[in-house]
C-alpha cells in the first residue's frame, strides 16, 4: 500500500510532464509552456493536477473531435509520393541537370540526343 502511495503520484507526474511536452505552445493556457513544465516538476502532486485541469485547451465532446476523427483527418492529409505534385516536380528538377549534360555531350559528339537511330534489322 505504501508503494501505491508513491507510484500513483509518480505516474501522474510523468503523464502530465509528457502531455505538457507534447502540447504545442498555442494550446497551453494561462502560462508559457516552460512555466508549466517547472510547475509540474516542482509541485509534485498539485502541479500535474493543475496542468490537467487548467493548463491545456481541451476540446469538447460536443464538437465530435475525438481520436477517431483526428485520425481520419490525418489520413486524408497524407498523399502517396506518386500523387504528390511537389514530389513529382522535385524528380523533374533532379533529372534536368542530367538531361542538360546529355544534350551537351551530344553537341560535342556532333549528334543530337533527340535524333533517334533507325531500327536495325
UniProtKB/TrEMBL annotation:
Its main location: membrane. Residues 60-121 are annotated as: Disordered. Residues 89-121 have a biased composition (Basic and acidic residues). Keywords: Cell membrane, Membrane, Transmembrane, Transmembrane helix. InterPro entries: CLS_N. It comes from the Bacteria. The keyword Heme does not apply. This is Cardiolipin synthase N-terminal domain-containing protein. The lineage of its organism: Bacteria, Bacillati, Actinomycetota, Actinomycetes, Kitasatosporales.
